[in-house]
Amino acid sequence: MLPRGASSMPPPPNPAPYFPPPRVTLPSGLDILRTFSGAVIFLEILFGTIVWILVASTQVPLPLLQGWVMFVAVTAWFLSIAFLSVFLFGYANRIAVNWNQMDFIFHGATFVFYFGAFLLQAATTSLHHFPRKFNATTQERILNGHEYNISIAASV
């Protein structure tokens, strides 16, 4: 017979041995630029800068659509720099986060937002032949030839 207050069930096992802390498999310092993830972040910064410059150099005929494109480009640019800085300065080793999963989530979210921005920029570019003012006597297009070429480059 068991003593009073005792249970026949053994105590639950300690979960610590079964769930080890996440390891950082991505390198710190300048070695991050030699990995696929580092190269993608560097390209996101480079092409984000190009999109930012190209969209800002047009007259922005449709502010709602191209405003979102600029928001995505600028936000992704700043977040890419911050994410890259975490690895360059070694903060990834100090913060207990699964950095492999964070890397996957970051690139996935950035892809979704950039794809949406691409669709909006392409939609703006496709409307280049419509007149800017429908009731005006002059037929000024939404995008002139130079802005049309810039919008194509920003879409790509």
Q: Give helix and strand order, one letter per element, not per position.
A: HHHH
Number of helices: 4
Give the beta-strand count: 0
End-to-end C-alpha gap: 78 Å
Percent in helix: 55-70%
Q: Averaging pLDDT over every residue, what do you get?
A: 78
Radius of gyration in whole Å, from Cα?
A: 25 Å
Poorly predicted runs: none
Short characterization:
The protein has 156 residues and is mostly helical.
Describe this structure in words.
The chain has 156 residues and is mainly alpha-helical. The chain has a domain at 53-130. It contains 4 helices and no strands. The protein has helices at 36-56, 63-88, 99-126, 145-155. The model has no long low-confidence stretch (mean pLDDT 78).
Topology:
Elements: H1 36-56, H2 63-88, H3 99-126, H4 145-155
List keywords for this structure.
MARVEL-CKLF_proteins; Marvel; single chain; MAL2 protein; transmembrane; mainly alpha; 156 residues
